Amino acid sequence: MAEKFIENTRVVDLQPLGAANFLLTLEAPLISRAATAGQFIQVAVPRCSVLWRRPFSINDVSTENGLVEILFQILGRGTRALAEVKRGDTLNVIGPLGNGFRVESTVRRALIVAGGLGIAPFPFLLKRLGEASIPSVVLYGVGRREQLCCVDRLRERAEVYLCTLDGSAGEQGTVVDLLEKHLRENPPIPDLHLFTCGPTPMMRKVQTIAEKHQLSGQASLETVMACGFGACVGCAVPMRHPQPGVQEYYLACKDGPVFNLEEIIIHD
Amino acid sequence: MIDLSVSIGALKLQNPVLTASGTFGYAEEFEGLIDFRLLGGIVTKTVTLDPRPGNSPPRIVELPNGMLNSIGLPNLGVERFITEKMPYLRRLGTRIIVNVAGRTGEEFVECVRRLETADGIDAYELNYSCPNVKEGGLSFSSDAHVAGRVTAAVRAVTKRPLITKLTPNVTSISDIGLACQDAGADAVSAVNTLVGMAVDIRTRRAKLATVTGGYSGPAIKPIALAKVYELARRLSIPVIGIGGICSAEDIVEFLLAGATAVQMGTVNFYEPTATVRAVEDLEKFCRAQNIFAVRTLIGAMEL
Ligand SMILES: Cc1cc2nc3c(=O)[nH]c(=O)nc-3n(C[C@H](O)[C@H](O)[C@H](O)COP(=O)(O)OP(=O)(O)OC[C@H]3O[C@@H](n4cnc5c(N)ncnc54)[C@H](O)[C@@H]3O)c2cc1C
Ligand SMILES: Cc1cc2nc3c(=O)[nH]c(=O)nc-3n(C[C@H](O)[C@H](O)[C@H](O)COP(=O)(O)O)c2cc1C
Ligand code: FES
């Protein structure tokens, strides 16, 4: 099992990004050094009465400075409290957790499809893809312009196409529409690999499209998680090819959160 | 030097803090997070005769001060448990208690019989009480005759210490406990989860795929404490207290109410170091209170 740590991390920065999104920078030297793109951390949210830690994808790391960044949106009590931390506060964090994206040597081109906060793990992945000299295209869709996050950082590392539901930035429509259009205009080459993260209905459509075009790909899934490291067995993800009666589920936290698209059933 | 040791029949524990079944995996999940040698022992996730996949998701729900689960005892089956999990467990330098369940009394017996061939098992805990297994799982725990019969049948195939784990979802937990005691159990552990449920008012669906599930965590501590108190008053064998325990203070409460040892469960998910911290704090508490041996706290509540 990959090494994980419990660190008392220091809040270095909390930056509001448009709508209800925040970029949180933590000083977490052990985690930053061990992390790979697509892994996540479990954050104990202070001063709020939620029981479990809250999982967040690692948005980016700076190993030299021992920093870990997460991008999050306010959804409920935990994230509301997290948006109130101050510089210098201490947050207890477990990580890095799960299996990140695999960048096989056969991948020669990356197509990233992100919906909403599903953009979270991709700046880190793009850094890795860049180091491996793999050219990448990012298709990124949100509801409206204010919800776009880290677009500049994406543009430094990839060719980026945006879309919004209301047409306030990029094309009007969903990122699934954008993907279909992109594949029509750029017939997929062999060795093109998809990476996707976003709302479940979106990822299910991406899975279907990938199959239609016989594209290989990986998806980063979210499920509820009590622990995040394989202890509660609560984060079951149905296998596409189960061994009936024996093994029918993966664990999102331990076998994932990144799965090969062809291995999983994506439920709502 | 404060003596933290306690005895569960022939089983000596260096301290009273155990991990609860199903909340500590097979320990490997906690590697690097805690030093296992500091624990009183580890109770493994339930093992059954045959492999089981577990229930459909959603399997867990967070509540303000507890959680619901309907995991459904997924496990590799006893054979693979012995070959794949025991080699790791037996070298951790702490007591290993293997938790066992079956659909029938024969399955309990057969599972323990297979485990008898494995080294490094310090005791068994029979899970009579998982509310998440459909096939009459509850009859072992809600019918004193059945509980007694299964306990006696397992007793006949092992000399290792035998603990029976009881459900709180019965009219009289101590009637069941007495039946286990009479059938030769060395100790009882209590409680397993309470039956509970939660409904999503927008989708109008139950929040668990199985509709009802097991409630655990800090919220159940007062209930668990009362059950442990009842058991300790009526039984002569040791009682292991379980339910919402998060800290050394909680442990002392259970000891005073009559528990000889405790298990910590749900807290491991969000505070994986809680067990070892509790051991440390328990020692500090004893020192501050001039208590030379933790066992002097057992049942020492003033009435
Ligand atoms: C592996 C993993 C990585 C994640 N990465 C990120 C990330 O990078 N950035 C980010 O903002 N969020 C991420 N999430 C989701 C994040 O963990 C949740 O948004 C957070 O736990 C919500 O906590 P809360 O207390 O604010 O909301 P709660 O009070 O727990 O929930 C509020 C409402 O949101 C719903 N909800 C809770 N969790 C989710 C979820 N995962 N998806 C959809 N609805 C949910 C609940 O059902 C409820 O209706 C990730 C989740 C996982 C499992
Ligand atoms: C997710 C989860 C899984 C559990 N799995 C098992 C199990 O496999 N076998 C068992 O005997 N008890 C199981 N339990 C019950 C616990 O061991 C314990 O009795 C109960 O949770 C109460 O303790 P707590 O409040 O400290 O969690 C499980 C509990 C939870 C929360
Ligand atoms: S979240 Fe606990 S096992 Fe995955």
From the structure above, extract its key features.
heterodimer, A: 268 residues, alpha/beta, seven-stranded antiparallel beta sheet, seven-stranded mixed beta sheet, B: 303 residues, eight-stranded parallel β-barrel, 9 helices, 30% helix, globular, binds flavin-adenine dinucleotide, binds flavin mononucleotide, binds FE2/S2 (inorganic) cluster
Would you kindly provide a written description of the structure presented here, covering whatever features stand out?
The complex is a heterodimer of chains A (268) and B (303). Chain A has 268 residues and is α/β, with parallel strands linked by helices. Helix content of chain A is 20%, strand content 35%. Chain A has helices at residues 29-34, 77-82, 122-131, 151-157, 175-185, 200-212; strands spanning 5-17, 21-27, 40-43, 54-57, 60-62, 67-73, 90-97, 109-115, 136-142, 159-164, 171-172, 192-197, 216-220, 236-243, 247-251, 258-260. Chain A has a seven-stranded antiparallel beta sheet with strand order 4-3-7-1-2-6-5. Chain A has a seven-stranded mixed beta sheet with strand order 11-10-9-8-12-13-16, sandwiched between helices. A two-stranded antiparallel sheet of chain A has the order 14-15. In chain A, a hairpin with a 3-residue loop joins strand 1 (5-17) and strand 2. The model of chain A has no long low-confidence stretch (mean pLDDT 93). By secondary structure, chain B is of the alpha/beta class. In chain B, the strands form four sheets. Chain B has an eight-stranded parallel beta barrel with strand order 3-4-7-8-9-10-15-16, surrounded by five helices. A four-stranded antiparallel beta sheet of chain B has the order 5-6-14-11, with no helix packed on it. Chains A and B meet through strand 14 and strand 15 of A and strand 5, strand 6 and helix 8 of B. The complex binds flavin-adenine dinucleotide (FAD), flavin mononucleotide and FE2/S2 (inorganic) cluster (FES). FE2/S2 (inorganic) cluster (FES) is lined by residues 225-228, 230-235, 251-254 of chain A.
